Amino acid sequence: MKSLKDFIFKLKLPHKIMLGIILMAVTLILVYRARVSPLVMEYQELKKHSEIIKSAIDAKEKRLEEMRSVGAAGLKITDEQKTLLEGQGNKVLGEEEIIDFIDTVRELAREMGAKDITVKEEQPGGALVRTSDTGGYFRLKRLPLKVQFRGNYETVSSFLFELRGLRQLINIGEVKMYSKDYTANLTAEIAVSMYYSEI
User: Fold this and answer.
1) Which alpha helices (H) appear in the chain, and where do they start and end?
2) SS3 (DSSP) at 33
3) What distance in Å separates the CA atoms of residue 22 and residue 24, rounded to the nearest whole number?
4) Among the listed residues 87, 117, 85, the one whose alpha carbon sits nearest the alpha carbon of residue 104
5) Which residues contact 115 (CB under 8 A, 6 or more apart)?
6) Could you tell me if 163 and 105 are in contact, meaning their C-beta atoms sit under 8 angstroms apart?
7) Pick from 143, 164, 138, 165: nearest CA to 81
8) β-pair type (186-197, 93-94)
9) 139: helix, coil or strand?
10) Alpha-carbon dihedral angle through residues 131, 195, 96, 139, given to the nearest 10 degrees
11) Parallel, antiparallel, or unpaired: how do β-strands 93-94 and 136-151 relate?
12) According to the model, what pLDDT value does residue 80 have?
């Protein structure tokens, strides 16, 4: 250790400065490897993942833009698509058939033995439907209905079975059943959406 001190002491000033610069550079390299390098690697990994996510988002946005460019007119369901859907048991009703459909639902519940039947229309909206057998996307209107009645479990299950058997383009959503007096007398609330084409 003494000989190293003697060696440094005997160095001329320019050599001492050069040695100091070298030691500082070595220290900076060690600090970089110990602290900065892991952060850089983590940043590069995050950047890689962000690029993957951005690529997925760009692809989705491109697809949405393509769909927007088609326009509502281009998404109008054709008679050929209606025929194909009907053949699959998913008949698309017309706007003029809404009242008849609601009456059918009410009558179906009555036939299954339901009591105190109500069918409430909720806010209609648009729906973008896609089936591979009908040539891509097409736009329909969707009318949500809230069907409520009293009956037993068999009444509810039979109603759901017959409703699906109507072979129309509908969606049966949430089904709630509860009993106020903890008996087999149930109150059922069923969310049904019917899809129809505008006139």
Assistant:
1) 2-10, 13-31, 37-74, 79-87, 98-111, 153-164
2) helix
3) 5
4) 117
5) 149, 150, 151
6) yes
7) 138
8) parallel
9) strand
10) -50
11) unpaired
12) 77
The pLDDT tens digits of the residues spanning 106-115 come to: 999 999 999 9
Which position has the token pair 């160095």?
Answer: 11
| Tokens of residue 152, six digits | 């037993």
Residue that the structure tokens 């996307």 belong to: 137
Token pair, residue 187, equals 């109150």
- Whole-angstrom Cα distance, residue 1 to residue 9? 12
DSSP code, position 77: P
Place of tokens 């179906």: 108
**The residue type at 10:** K
Taking the C-alpha atoms of residue 190 and residue 195, their distance in angstroms, rounded to an integer, is 16
Q: What is the largest CA-CA distance in the chain?
A: 111
- Specify which residues 172 forms β-bridges with: 192
Is residue 112 within 8 Å of 162, Cβ to Cβ?
yes
Amino acid letter for position 177: M
- Lowest average pLDDT, out of 88-97, 122-131, 166-175, 187-196, goes to 122-131
Rounded Cα distance between 136 and 84, Å, is 12
Q: What's this model's pTM, rounded to 2 decimal places?
A: 0.56
